[in-house]
Design goal:
With 389 residues, the chain is α/β, with parallel strands linked by helices. The protein is built from ten helices and 18 strands. Helix 9 links the parallel strand 10 and strand 11. The radius of gyration is 22 Å and the shape is elongated. It binds pyridoxal-5'-phosphate. Its cofactor is pyridoxal 5'-phosphate.
């Protein structure tokens, strides 16, 4: 199915095993060194872009602190994320309020703390920004329709049709704001690089029509996230994304491309986490069933919510894995009394036939959208703990 060696080197794997051997399960261990490596790689792949880390993907304080020191900016979605970032000494000029759904008093709170860049996709939100954050830079999020090739689509809920984006940018000017640019998100874990081509073409249309018809010169395109982490399904390398997307930009804008913002989440931190769980029970539903049910102490409610509809297929290995070990198909399930708490049933994972209670499972590529997506206390299980190495 996959090899551990394709995801993590022997030396990093051994370092992880040593670090995590006495930690209570379930837990997530984040490899900070690898996040740094990924950040530098992204920066080098898009040397012309400004990086705004999407805080929601992993808001661990050591992660934010390290990225702040590396010069990253931050995409913030709530006043709570804002407080966290400000506490690290990052100033408002390095932040954008990227959530299109916000309370008027929160807009004011961001403004009072020095934030001057705001996303929007509706008239009422834009009016609230004009009232509470006068003169700020506005970018309008465009609706993306073809996000099916993304494993975790962020479509429908966010953005507006380009015609409406046009109207909003005109309205922004008329309200005394600065019409600054457009944004889009092509869907998280987007495996079709062509999705950026369509989005950039739409942006280019808005740039030229607003300039010709309204004399509004936009400056910026916020291309959101969507770059991949390494799950089971193959993706192109980041370098391929970068060269293709750069080509699309030049095709549409010639030599003078606008200011480009990237908001990576998953691609920076996804590969940098390993979730460890403990097998609680291995059972069969009848005496001759070939498939085993493997119940273990992590599940949909404490870290693995992105297995909804089996969307994210994490590489899973066990402490019984090794050369020549015989394996069979399993259904992987969590510990709670909710029948939705099943991670994989259609997609056939194979685990050692000798697997039993007390053995460990290692879920690779769990650095993004795991621990913070966990419930507080469903069935009394505490939230999953995160450690940083
Ligand atoms: C979640 C989010 C991102 C991060 O997306 P990834 O696919 O994880 O890189 C970026 N921008 C916005 C506005 C988001 O909501």
């Amino acid at each position: 199915m996959f090899n551990r060696e394709d995801y993590i080197s022997d030396s990093e794997w051994n370092r992880f095993l040593e670090f995590s051997k006495d930690l209570e399960t379930p837990n997530v261990v984040i490899n900070l060194k690898q996040i740094k490596y990924n950040f530098i790689k992204l920066r080098d792949s898009f040397p012309y872009a400004h990086i705004y880390y999407a805080v929601k993907s992993n808001p661990g304080e050591p992660v934010l602190k390290m990225l702040a020191e590396l010069g990253s900016n931050f995409d913030i979605a709530s006043r709570y994320e804002l407080d966290k970032i400000l506490a690290l000494g990052v100033t408002g000029d390095r932040l954008s309020y990227g959530n299109t759904i916000k309370k008027a008093r929160d807009i004011k709170y961001f403004y009072d703390n020095g934030v001057r860049m705001f996303a929007t996709d509706s008239k009422d939100d834009l009016k609230a920004i004009a009232e509470n954050a006068p003169g700020s830079r506005i970018y309008v999020r465009m609706l993306m329709e073809n996000t099916q090739s993304a494993d975790w689509p962020l479509s429908r809920k966010f953005g507006c049709h380009p015609d409406m984006a046009y109207d909003l940018l005109v309205m922004a000017r008329d309200l005394g704001l600065t019409p600054y640019g457009v944004s889009f998100h092509v869907g998280s874990q987007q495996r079709d690089i062509g999705a950026w081509n369509d989005a950039i073409a739409k942006a280019s249309y808005l740039f030229s029509s607003l300039e010709e018809e309204e004399g509004i010169r936009l400056s910026m395109i916020n291309m959101g996230g969507g770059f991949p982490a390494h799950y089971i399904q193959p993706t192109n390398e980041l370098e391929t994304y970068a060269s293709e997307i750069t080509r699309y930009l030049h095709d549409d804008f010639g030599d003078e491309i606008p200011m480009i913002i990237l908001e990576p989440g998953r691609s920076l931190v996804g590969d940098c986490g390993i979730l460890t769980s403990e097998v609680i029970l291995v059972s069969r539903k009848n005496n001759t069933a070939l498939q085993r049910w493997v119940y273990q102490d992590s599940g949909k409610f404490n870290g693995l919510i992105e297995t909804l509809d089996e969307a994210m297929k994490y590489p899973v290995i066990s402490s019984k894995d090794g050369p020549g070990v015989k394996k069979g198909e399993v259904i992987l399930a969590g510990p709670t009394c909710d029948s939705a708490d099943i991670m994989y049933e259609d997609f056939k994972y194979k685990l050692p036939l000798s697997l039993k209670a007390g053995d460990k499972l290692y879920w690779l590529t769990t650095g993004a959208y795991t621990s913070t997506y966990a419930s507080v206390e469903f069935n009394g299980f505490p939230p999953i703990k995160t450690y940083f190495m």
